[in-house]
Design goal:
Blueprint: H1 3-6, H2 13-44, H3 55-58, H4 63-90, H5 96-134
Helix pairs in contact: 2-4, 2-5, 4-5
Length: about 150
C-alpha cells in the first residue's frame, strides 16, 4: 500500500487507487523498456538478421527511431507519475484531487504514447514478416534463415 501503509497508517480509498495506478504505470514502463531493449538487441546483437535488399523496404527501418522516441516519451511520463505519487505521500499538505488529476493526465499520456510506440514497431514487424513470407529462400541474404 505504499509509504502510508508501511508507516502503520490505514490506507484510504485514495491511497489504494493511487497505488494501483502506480503499479499500472510501472508495468507500462517495464514493457516500454523491454520494447526498446528488444529492438536494439535485434538490430545490433545478431548476425543472422538481414534487412531486405530493396531500398524501399529498407526505409521501414526508419520506424525504429520513431517507435523508440514514442516509447522514450512514454517512459518520461512514467517518471512524472512516480514523482507525483511520491510528492503526494511525502507532502504534509496532501491535495488528493490535484494529485489524482496530475497522475491521471500523465498516465493517460504515458499509455497513449506507449501504444503508439508499440503500434509503430508492430508496423515494421508486420512488413518484415510479409517480406519474409513472399521472398523466395534463394533470394534471401545469406544466413538470414538461420536462428
Amino acid at each position: 500500500m505504499g509509504a502510508i501503509a508501511a508507516a502503520g497508517v490505514v490506507a484510504t480509498e485514495t491511497d489504494t487507487a493511487l497505488t494501483g495506478t502506480l503499479a499500472y504505470s510501472q508495468s507500462l514502463l517495464q514493457w516500454a523498456l523491454l520494447g526498446v531493449g528488444g529492438t536494439v538487441a535485434l538490430l545490433i546483437g545478431t548476425t543472422t538478421h538481414r534487412s531486405p535488399p530493396q531500398p524501399l523496404l529498407r526505409l521501414l527501418y526508419y520506424l525504429f527511431p520513431a517507435g523508440w522516441a514514442l516509447l522514450g516519451v512514454s517512459i518520461h511520463f512514467s517518471t512524472r507519475v512516480h514523482q507525483a505519487y511520491l510528492a503526494y505521500y511525502w507532502s504534509p499538505h496532501r491535495d488528493a484531487f490535484g494529485t489524482m488529476t496530475t497522475i491521471s493526465s500523465d498516465l493517460d499520456s504515458q499509455e497513449s504514447l506507449f501504444f503508439f510506440g508499440v503500434g509503430v514497431l508492430a508496423v515494421w514487424l508486420i512488413a518484415y514478416v510479409i517480406w519474409w513470407i513472399h521472398t523466395p529462400e534463394e533470394t534471401r541474404p545469406k544466413g538470414a534463415d538461420k536462428p
